[in-house]
Amino acid sequence: MAPPRPDNLHSRLVSWLKVVLPLAALAILSTLFLVARTINPDDAIPYADVDVADRVREPRITAPTWAGITSDGAALSVEAAAARPGQSPGEEGRAAALRARIDTPDGASATMAAETGALDSDARLLRLGGGVEVTTSTGYHLTTEAVTADLDATDVRSDSALDATGPLGRIEAGSMRLTEDPEAAGSYVLTFGNRVKLIYDPKK
């Protein structure tokens, strides 16, 4: 008996594959559907829990920043956790968890941190309140209730009682001011006033 011809063997193989491959594909698909994980609606992408009505009533900005250059060349930058613009003409915009920094042309700097803040665009003033901490690169650290900073010129001042530490020791005063030295352009001075009390520390 003559052995089967190669072309017959190839034809039979193709015929079997036409039957076997579709059945195998169906078996695989059936397995996928059987073992597929059940969809849990709770696993959907979470949405932020935002009170839309509250946002419409009181619009606010998250993590706003502001930066500018004063007329004397100092760089002023301000950032906050959140800010709310004024709701009517003339009303000040307000900010929470506010931080400001001034870098003067002589290489010095001062940072301010406050619980609250308000931007008076008409007067070009930044008002910090709720307890303010001021730290300068020259070694002074002071705390006071409120501070006002000019947006157009380097002029940071406080008219409330303050406690400070510096190169000479501890200072108690009723006011302070950081501004350009009127007698030396390009230099800046921090002055204390209104019943100044200095507790000198020779170790400083």
Automatic annotation (TrEMBL):
Q: What is this protein called?
A: Lipopolysaccharide export system protein LptC
What are the TM regions of this chain, as residue ranges?
13-36
Which InterPro entries does the annotation name? LipoPS_assembly_LptC-rel (IPR010664)
**Keyword Transmembrane helix included in the entry's annotation:** yes
Keywords of the record, alphabetical order, are: Membrane, Transmembrane, Transmembrane helix
User: What's a Pfam family this protein contains?
Assistant: LptC
